[in-house]
Structures are given as structure tokens and as C-alpha cells.
């Protein structure tokens, strides 16, 4: 990876310019800044600049992209299993998150990965390194989105547990909800994030595969086959006959992944933030928002989603 065009100092300067008075933070411990219309944490802003000019994708690369809490862990597992016909580790360890890895310890690992590489981003499409969107680049992107009320619910539980685990007090849910509705959440606003990839997938269906968490829940076998076909490694008749698709779906399923010993230990991200792997597996259900949101909150999020997606051809 070449990082010569934008120096670290330049990236730092641009990042400082991007910071302004945040109206309210979703998380006490997460300093977010509005960078080109999206709320990102400090280190991610630096890395976007470095990646944008310096990242050299390989034509065979496949990127998993998502707004957080939309089914990333599961999709990483399915894509890795499709490519390798197995899954042995926590999906996050098999598929590195590029904009976080860069500043941490694992860049050399990304470079040493053999092709085809599976990498991931939570970045919006407009912030991907231009080399990935280049017409000459054959890289493919698999994006997963999820119904907004469930995304808020999953996000709330994740950070509540994380904040409490470091001895801090989470914000009142009403404040977190207001933040989310205003888009002030890591990588938010979610609606613009989803729309950017949705439009890309409409314009370039061979390059961007657009998936929904709900359809993964409904028919994971169909989605696994679709992912394999999109990546150019579809299942042979022989593999189908041996029940490989069923086995891989089972291997990546919520119960299987959340119960393996490997996923009960800590996962170290970005050098110093430690997140328990078990935090990535909570309930894995559609509609769990009904156990958290008041009817008013639910209606408010529905209205925002309807308004934002109006005319796009996208709905839930
Ligand atoms: P991330 O962006 O931090 O990586 P992500 O994996 O996108 O998180 O989302 C986590 C959600 O996916 C959790 O949803 P919940 O809070 O509503 O339960 C998690 O339980 C769910 N999840 C993780 N693995 C699976 C799986 N194998 N099958 C179904 N859902 C899953």
C-alpha cells in the first residue's frame, strides 16, 4: 500500500478542520466529527484521507460494506465461507475492517493476504478510495442494510453494554435516539449511507451487490448462493449434492457463531480498544425494536425513513 500522496500531517490538518461543534454526541466516549456529511470518529477521518490516495486494490478484491449493526459480522462469515468453503475464526478476524486496521497493527497483514482478498469498510460509498470505483477496477462490493428501527436497537444495546463494561454511564436512551435521528452516530446518517450504496448497486449491478439483513434471515441459503455467484465462486452441482450450502449456512448461523469457544474471548481492535467478541452476537432477530422503542419513537423513525427513501425505489 502506497501512502505517499497525502502525508499524515496533511491528513491531521484536514481532520482538525473537519471538526466542529457537535450538537450532541451519541456516545460520551466517542468523539465524532462531521466529515463530508457523515459522522466519523477521529482516527477514521485520518485514515479515510490516507486510504483515498494510497490504497492499491487488487482486481480480485471483494469488499464487505455496511453501516454498523446491519449484519456485517454475519455477511463477513457467509462471504468468507463461500470463498473458502469453511469458517474457522470470528468473521471480524477473517475480514479486516480497512479504515480501522490502517492505523492499528494489521496493515502488513492486509498486504500479506493472498488473493482474492476479502476486506471490509463501514465507510459511505462516496468516501471509498477512488481506485476502488475506477472503471478499470474489477473490485466487487457486497453491501448489507437493515431496517432502521432494528439498527438503532442493536446500536443502543451494543454501546450500552460497551460503555458499562468500562465503568461509564450510558446516555439516556432519549438522547441516543435523538442523536440517531439526527444522524449523529458513527458512520451516520444511516439513510444517506444506505442510499449511496443503493444507487451504486442500481447503476453498477455487477460491481455492487445490495443485500438486506431481513432477506438473509428469511432465506440464508439463497443469499449464500447469491454471494458465491457474485464473487465468481458458485457452488458446483457436486457441492450442492453433498449439502455444502446447508453446512456453511449452519456454520455461519447465529447459534453456531455465538456459541463457539473462539467467540467468547476478547477481540482487540485498533490496538487499544478491546471489544468482547460476544458483543457482536446479541439476538439476531428481525423486529426486536418492539422491545425497546415506544410507539412514538417507532413512528418517528418510520417517518424519517419514508421521507429519506421517498422516490429512490428503496423501501422496507
Ligand atoms: P458491527 O457493525 O459492529 O460489525 P453487525 O454485525 O453489523 O455489527 O451487527 C450486529 C447485529 O447482527 C446484532 O444484531 P442484534 O443486536 O439485533 O441482535 C447481532 O446479533 C447480529 N448477528 C451477528 N451474527 C449474526 C448471525 N450469524 N446471524 C444473524 N444475526 C447475527
From TrEMBL:
Organism (species): Platanthera guangdongensis
Lineage of the species this protein comes from: Eukaryota, Viridiplantae, Streptophyta, Embryophyta, Tracheophyta
Protein name: Sulfotransferase
Keyword field contains 4Fe-4S: no
EC assignment: 2.8.2.-
SUPFAM superfamilies linked to this entry: P-loop containing nucleoside triphosphate hydrolases
Transmembrane segments: none
Family: Belongs to the sulfotransferase 1 family.
Tree of life domain: Eukaryota
Residue ranges annotated for the Sulfotransferase domain, each copy included: 59-313
Enzyme class: transferase
PANTHER family named among the record's database cross-references: SULFOTRANSFERASE SULT
InterPro entries found in the cross-reference section: P-loop_NTPase, Sulfotransferase_dom
UniProt keyword list: Transferase
Amino acid at each position: 500500500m502506497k501512502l505517499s500522496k497525502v502525508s499524515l500531517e496533511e491528513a491531521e490538518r484536514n481532520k482538525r478542520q473537519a471538526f466542529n461543534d457537535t450538537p450532541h454526541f451519541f456516545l460520551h466516549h466517542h468523539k465524532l466529527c462531521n466529515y463530508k456529511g457523515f459522522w466519523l470518529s477521529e482516527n477514521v477521518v485520518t485514515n479515510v484521507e490516507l486510504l483515498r490516495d494510497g490504497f492499491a486494490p487488487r482486481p480480485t478484491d471483494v469488499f464487505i460494506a455496511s453501516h454498523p449493526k446491519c449484519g456485517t459480522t454475519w455477511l463477513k462469515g457467509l462471504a468468507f465461507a463461500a470463498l473458502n468453503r469453511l469458517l474457522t475464526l470470528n468473521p471480524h478476524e477473517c475480514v479486516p475492517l480497512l479504515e480501522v486496521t490502517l492505523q492499528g497493527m494489521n496493515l502488513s497483514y492486509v498486504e500479506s493476504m493472498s488473493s482474492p482478498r476479502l476486506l471490509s469498510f463501514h465507510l459511505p460509498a462516496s468516501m471509498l478510495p477512488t481506485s476502488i470505483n475506477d472503471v478499470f477496477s474489477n473490485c466487487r462490493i457486497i453491501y448489507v442494510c437493515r431496517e432502521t428501527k432494528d439498527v438503532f436497537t442493536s446500536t443502543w444495546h451494543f454501546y450500552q453494554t460497551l460503555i458499562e463494561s468500562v465503568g461509564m454511564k450510558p446516555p439516556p436512551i432519549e438522547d441516543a435516539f435523538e442523536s440517531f435521528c439526527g444522524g449523529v452516530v458513527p458512520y451516520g446518517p444511516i439513510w444517506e449511507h444506505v442510499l449511496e450504496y443503493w444507487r451504486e448497486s442500481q447503476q453498477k449491478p455487477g460491481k455492487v451487490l445490495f443485500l438486506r439483513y431481513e432477506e438473509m434471515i428469511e432465506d440464508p441459503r439463497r443469499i449464500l448462493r447469491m454471494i458465491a455467484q457474485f464473487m465468481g465462486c458458485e457452488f458446483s452441482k457436486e457441492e450442492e449434492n453433498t449439502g455444502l450450502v446447508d453446512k456453511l449456512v449452519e456454520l455461519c448461523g447465529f447459534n453456531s457463531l455465538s456459541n463457539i469457544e473462539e467467540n467468547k474471548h476478547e477481540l482487540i481492535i485498533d490496538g487499544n480498544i478491546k471489544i468482547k467478541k460476544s458483543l457482536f452476537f446479541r439476538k439476531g432477530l428481525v423486529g426486536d425494536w418492539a422491545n425497546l422503542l415506544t410507539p412514538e419513537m417507532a413512528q418517528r423513525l418510520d417517518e424519517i425513513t419514508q421521507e429519506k427513501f421517498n422516490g429512490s425505489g428503496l423501501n422496507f
